[in-house]
């Protein structure tokens, strides 16, 4: 045993990072390294049974420290545990530096003779090769350790660089307005999500690129600053020897340069060390902040990428080369960006980790309010007011917006004013904040005009920073901005010297709206073209908003500034009048006028804009164009929707989808029996708006149709909806509920319709409705039930429930049409239904059993129904595997003179030519059947032929024949033409999605040039040539009543025959 010497890194801690299998592998490899006889002296059993701590003690006690150190590093590298080998090297370098400082001369002018230092990697290579000389004295071991200081020692230049950065980022970190404790908590929370900055994350192979993304102002740059500050304070020094902060805001103004010039342009003291620094790429962290502000044209970052750090290139190319890993492939990158640049990053970044920064969580906002106000009652009142406005509360995830809200509301409370109206809209809050910063009558017209102009210029250019030349081109002096700088509305940029940024993007958007709303001076260019700014129409156009989403909120603020009360407040404070034409411009803009033809996104935007205005007359005028509205509704949209719908007096049909159940007040388990617990804070804020929205069912007498689809409705929302639908003033005719969650909502919705006098059409669709069926039976049995159509789709019910429903259908005297599509009736359920249909008091005229798992065996019972039913005229059996045998049974029932059936749908029922033969025989005789749908059945050439023969017979009464997708070949068109020439009853023929070819279509067109009874023809034309075009013109002249659909648009649309089952 050799005398124990201290190893210059924490060997025990490193070995304890290994799993049991890894530790066994470490022991095995340890005997294979250079000078392995060191460990051969130790008993094998002692090594094999040792855990990490014991093995460290054994090696330190039995082996030379230099051998233990280098052997450990070599084994870690063989095991591909580079993280542990690098950690060991770092600790060795630190130990070397301490030793050097301990023994260095007192005077820097005096030198002592030292051994020539050797590079660490060279030292390891010599060790692996077995050429490193063995030393046993403590002095030699110390000298060997000092070798590792070569790359670990911080030079004076590096110390100076670190100190400058530390001062800079600490100042930025501490410059946030207001109390920054919650900002620091938020930054720490997200910092711990970044693998290389979380000390609790076990070492391992992590992605070398981390992307922080979020909308503006949620903490990306704050977090980037914190990481740089951590590095300057040695918190990240174990992982990164160098860290460089690259602001894309600054780089966007930089001309072509080399990568080295771009990185080191502000650090002349590091110029001589550039090759040495860049050679250690695996120890470098690059923080690329504000990637979206680079302003590079599409594709510029992936063109001409290079790996030469001395080659001159445009800055986007250099950054693209870094992100693409062509330049310094082993460097670690942290990138911050807004969502608009994520697409470019996905093309560039190699296997990045994406972290969405969400800013202040709800608990952060609450804590911030408590800290800002000091008084808990005031703080919570202000917090609840912000929370009552979902859009403003969403903006409050940005710390700067929280500061604006707190500053504004606290000042109002101190003056004894009611802050509630201020939080009604974001415009009202931002305007009050701006006006509260200055005394009334302040002569700031010029300064406010200048600031709003700069805001608009920046927003159109998608820039949030104001450069010196921007001020100069707009004729603005720094003194003009001093008042706004003093009040933190504008801030001096912490990175770019001589630049300014707005406190938050939303306030820049507000000031942009102010630019458009303020009355222009006579000498000003009204449309803003002198400043590369679009006019009001362009600001609010869909095209511009798609190109630049930042314009959206500015447009909303502009509508908000059209409010008369706000106009007076602005005039009283700044002495500047609003433009008298602004309301008319808003009415003329693209977002307001589309004659009711809006996409869901456009409609949502319009409602948000109108809500911001809070101007009843403006809203009435815009909403008058709507007769139908389809809206996707969430917690943020409900306030604008409820406000605008109350003023939509011409509305006749409303379709709602209540989405994002996590934002709604209650969870799925909430029930009426637990009413108190279900009223959460979210519930309290949402319910008043939902009540207003539902009130239009009673107040608007023109509203006759409501559809609610794919929605999550809490118990409270259902209760309010039911109350309004059940009210005496509700005039709804048609009610549709599809895929409502939770399923128990259907029961209450049904009970609300019990005895309803105006509702004639009811559709209930969705899984697991069995709890609803008893309530539906109550509705059907009610003596005042006026339902004529009932759709009960995709309902899972028991046999007993089908029995109860059948009895209810027997008792009902109003129903004429029942749609039971997509239900698994089973044999018992089907038989119960057939019994009802045979009942002499059953008045059903139309029945759909589409996709009800019926078979040919069920057709026998159905045939009996057809014989005895006095009322049934329409029957849909689509998507049931009836086959030819089932069709034969049906035809037997249809052949009886007592049968009243007029329309039969056999779409996709596995029918072949044999089934067509049964139908053709029926059609040749006198039959009540006038409409037949055989679509999507492979009836073949023979099937078409026998049907055409039947059509040619004088007794054939068929008026509509649908043969969509029946694989009819071109030569079958000869039979079709013959039938069309003879038939005097057929008015509709559907040959869509059949390969008729040009020859087949030509034959049909020639036949149709002669006058006939046909009024509608659908067919597929693959090659519409000149000859067909000429024939078509001739048809239009000779048969003007004939409409030909060539399936150019949406050939897979809902089959036409399905419309016969809605009355």
Automatic annotation (TrEMBL):
GO CC terms in record: cytosol
Keyword Repeat: yes
Main location: cytoplasm
Domain Pyrin: 1-98
Keyword rRNA processing assigned: no
The organism's place on the tree of life at top rank: Eukaryota
Localization, UniProt: Cytoplasm
Start and end residues of each NACHT domain: 208-518
Protein family (similarity comment): Belongs to the NLRP family.
Protein name stated in the entry: NLR family pyrin domain containing 2
Organism the protein comes from: Macaca mulatta (Rhesus macaque)
Gene coding for it: NLRP2
């Amino acid at each position: 045993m050799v005398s124990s010497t201290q190893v210059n890194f924490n060997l025990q801690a490193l070995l304890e990072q290994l799993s049991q299998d890894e530790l066994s592998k470490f022991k095995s490899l340890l005997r294979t390294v250079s000078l392995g006889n060191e460990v051969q002296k130790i008993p094998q059993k002692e090594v094999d049974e040792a855990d990490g701590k014991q093995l460290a003690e054994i090696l330190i006690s039995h082996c030379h420290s230099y051998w233990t150190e280098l052997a450990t590093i070599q084994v870690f590298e063989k095991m591909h545990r580079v993280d542990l080998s690098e950690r060991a090297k770092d600790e060795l370098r630190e130990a070397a530096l301490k030793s050097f400082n301990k023994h260095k001369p007192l005077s820097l002018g005096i030198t002592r003779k030292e051994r020539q230092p050797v590079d660490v990697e060279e030292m390891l290579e010599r060790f692996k090769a077995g050429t490193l000389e063995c030393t046993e004295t403590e002095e030699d071991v110390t000298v060997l350790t000092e070798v590792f200081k070569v790359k670990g020692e911080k030079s004076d230049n590096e110390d100076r660089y670190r100190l400058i950065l530390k001062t800079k980022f600490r100042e930025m970190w501490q410059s946030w307005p207001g109390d920054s404790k919650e900002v620091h908590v938020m930054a720490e929370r997200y910092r711990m999500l970044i693998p290389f900055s979380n000390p609790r994350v076990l070492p391992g192979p992590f992605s070398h690129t981390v992307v922080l993304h979020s909308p503006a102002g949620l903490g990306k740059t704050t977090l980037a600053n914190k990481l740089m500050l951590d590095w300057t304070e040695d918190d990240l020094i174990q992982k990164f020897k160098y860290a460089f902060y690259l602001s894309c805001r600054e780089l966007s103004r930089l001309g072509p340069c080399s990568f080295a010039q771009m990185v080191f342009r502000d650090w002349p003291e590091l110029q001589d060390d550039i090759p040495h620094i860049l050679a250690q790429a695996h120890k470098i962290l690059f923080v690329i902040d504000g990637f979206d502000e680079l302003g590079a044209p599409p594709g510029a970052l992936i063109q001409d990428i290079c790996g030469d750090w001395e080659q001159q290139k445009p800055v986007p190319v250099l950054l693209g080369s870094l992100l693409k890993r062509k330049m310094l492939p082993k460097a670690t990158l942290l990138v911050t960006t807004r969502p608009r640049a994520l697409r470019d990053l996905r093309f560039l970044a190699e296997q990045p980790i994406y972290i969405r920064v969400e800013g202040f969580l709800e608990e952060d906002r609450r804590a911030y309010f408590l800290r800002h106000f000091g008084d808990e009652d005031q703080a919570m009142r202000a917090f609840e007011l912000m929370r009552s406005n979902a859009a403003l509360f969403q903006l409050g995830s940005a710390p700067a917006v929280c500061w604006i809200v707190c500053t504004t509301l606290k000042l109002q409370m101190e003056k004894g004013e009611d802050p509630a109206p201020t939080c009604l809209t974001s415009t009202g809050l931002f305007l009050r904040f701006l006006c509260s910063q200055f005394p009334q009558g302040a002569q700031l017209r010029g300064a406010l005009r200048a600031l709003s102009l700069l805001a608009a210029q920046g927003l159109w250019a998608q820039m949030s920073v104001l450069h010196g030349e921007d001020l100069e081109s707009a004729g603005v002096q720094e003194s003009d901005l001093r008042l706004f700088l003093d009040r933190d509305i504008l801030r001096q940029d912490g990175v770019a010297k001589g630049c300014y940024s707005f406190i938050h993007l939303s306030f820049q958007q507000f000031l942009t709206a102010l630019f458009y709303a303020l009355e222009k001076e006579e000498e000003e260019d009204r449309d803003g073209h002198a400043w590369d700014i679009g006019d009001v129409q362009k600001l609010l156009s869909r095209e511009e908003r798609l190109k630049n989403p930042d314009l959206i909120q500015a447009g909303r603020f502009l509508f908000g500034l059209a409010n008369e009360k706000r106009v007076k407040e602005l005039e009283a404070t700044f002495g500047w009048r609003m433009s008298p034409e602004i309301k008319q411009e808003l009415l003329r803009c693209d977002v307001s006028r589309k004659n009711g033809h809006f996409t869901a996104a456009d409609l949502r935007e319009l409602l948000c804009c109108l809500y911001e205005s809070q101007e009843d007359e403006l809203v009435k005028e815009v909403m008058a164009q709507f007769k139908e509205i389809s809206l996707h509704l969430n917690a943020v949209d409900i306030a604008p929707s409820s406000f605008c719908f109350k003023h939509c007096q011409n509305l006749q049909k409303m379709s709602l989808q209540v989405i994002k159940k996590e934002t709604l007040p209650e969870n799925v388990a909430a029930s009426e029996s637990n009413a108190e617990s279900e009223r959460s804070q979210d519930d309290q804020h949402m319910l008043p708006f939902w009540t207003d929205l539902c009130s239009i069912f009673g107040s608007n007498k023109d509203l006759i149709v409501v559809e609610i689809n794919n929605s999550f409705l809490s118990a409270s929302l259902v209760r309010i909806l039911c109350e309004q639908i059940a009210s005496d003033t509700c005039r709804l005719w048609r009610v549709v509920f599809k895929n409502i969650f939770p399923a128990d909502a259907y029961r209450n919705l049904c009970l609300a319709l019990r005895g309803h006098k105006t509702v004639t059409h009811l559709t209930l669709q969705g899984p697991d409705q069995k709890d609803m069926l008893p309530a539906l039976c109550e509705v059907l049995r009610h003596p005042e039930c006026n339902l004529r159509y009932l759709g009960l789709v995709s309902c899972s019910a028991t046999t007993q429930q089908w029995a109860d429903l059948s009895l209810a259908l027997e008792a009902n005297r109003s129903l004429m049409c029942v749609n039971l599509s997509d239900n698994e009736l089973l044999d018992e359920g089907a038989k119960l239904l057939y019994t009802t249909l045979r009942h002499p008091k059953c008045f059903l005229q139309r029945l759909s059993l589409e996709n009800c798992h019926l078979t040919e065996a069920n057709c026998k019972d159905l045939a009996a129904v057809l014989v005895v039913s006095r009322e049934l005229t329409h029957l849909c059996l689509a998507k049931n595997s009836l086959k030819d045998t089932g069709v034969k049974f049906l035809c037997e029932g249809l052949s009886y003179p007592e049968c009243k059936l007029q329309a039969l749908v056999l779409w996709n029922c596995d029918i072949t030519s044999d089934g067509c033969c049964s139908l053709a025989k029926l059609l040749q005789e006198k039959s009540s059947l006038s409409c037949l749908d055989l679509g999507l059945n492979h009836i073949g050439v023979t099937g078409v032929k026998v049907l055409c023969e039947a059509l040619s017979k004088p007794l054939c009464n068929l008026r509509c024949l649908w043969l969509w997708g029946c694989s009819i070949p071109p030569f079958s068109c000869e039979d079709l033409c013959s039938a069309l020439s003879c038939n005097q009853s057929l008015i509709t023929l559907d040959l869509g999605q059949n390969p008729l070819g040009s020859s087949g279509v030509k034959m049909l067109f020639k036949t149709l040039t002669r006058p006939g009874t046909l009024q509608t023809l659908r067919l597929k034309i693959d090659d519409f040539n000149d000859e067909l075009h000429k024939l078509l013109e001739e048809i239009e002249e000779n048969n003007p009543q004939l409409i030909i659909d060539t399936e150019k648009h949406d050939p897979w649309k809902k089959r036409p025959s399905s419309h016969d089952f809605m009355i």
